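Objective 1b. Sequence-to-structure analysis of Class II fructose-bisphosphate aldolase family protein.
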Amino acid sequence: PLATTGDLVTRAAAARSAVAAFNIITLEHVEAVVAGAESAGVPVVLQVSENAVKFRYGRLRPIARAAVAAAERSAVPVALHLDHVQSDDLLRQASDAGFSSVMYDASRLPYAENLAATRAAAEWAHAQGLWIEAELGEIGGKHGHPPLDAHAPGARTDPGEAHAFVADSGVDALAVAVGNAHAMTERTAALDHDLLKRLAGALEVPLVLHGSSGVPDEELAAAVAGGIAKVNVGTALNVAMTGAIRAFLATHPQAVDSRKYLSVGREAMVAEVERFVAVLGARPAP
Ligand code: G3H
Ligand code: ZN
C-alpha cells in the first residue's frame, strides 16, 4: 500500500534501523525496487530527483503515476519522495502528484540563504501536509572561503550549526555530510562516525545519508547504528542495471528485443535492492 515517508522514517528510527530510499528513473527501476522490497518484506521509499524529472522531459506526472500505482498494489508499505528539489515550481507539484515528502536542496547557497530558502520551503510543505528533508553540508562559504561542493572531501556538517539550522528552518529530517559523496561507482567511502555521533546527539530529527552507493556494508551498518534513519541509494542501481545489460549484450550481439536486456537489468537491480535492505537491518513490514 501507499505509505508516507514520515511514517516509515519515524518507525525506522524508533527501531534503530533505516528505511532505504531508492532513486527511480525508468519503469524498470520502479518495478525492481518494489519487487526487492517485497521479497525482503520491508517498507521502502521510491524517490524521484529533480534531475530524473528533467530526464522525463520536465514532467513529474508520468513517473509519479507509475510509482503510485506500484505502491498501491505492493505487498509492503511504499512511500513516494521528491528528491534534491531546487525548483519551487517542482516543489509545488509534489502533493498533487502523490508524494508525501520532499527533500529541498538549497545546500549550494551560503548558510543564511540556505536557511531562508529552506524555512520558506518548510512552511509551504507543512501547510500541504508534506514531510520535508533539507541538507546542510556547506561548511565552506560562510567564513569567506570559496563555497565547497556539499559532498566534496573535507566538506562536513557542523553539529552546532546543524542544530540551529533544524530549529530555525523547522525541517523534519536533515541530510548530513559526514564523508559521503554522490555518484560513487566503487564502495570506498570512509564515513566520519565520530561526527555522525555528535550530529545525532545534537539533533532530534532523523538523519539522512545521501550517496550511499559508495558506502561499504560495514560502514552503512555502523551509520545506521549511529543514527541514520533514511539511506538514499541511486547510483548502485544504475551500476547493477547497466553492468548486467552490458554483459548481456556482449554475449548476445544479435539481441534487438529491448525486453530481453531490460529484464536482465531489472533483475540485477532487484538483487541490489535486496542486498541494501539486508545491510540496513530494515525491519519487516508492519
Ligand atoms: O539523493 C540521492 C542519493 O543521495 C543517491 O546517491 O547515487 O550516490 O547513491 P548515490
Ligand atoms: Zn542525494
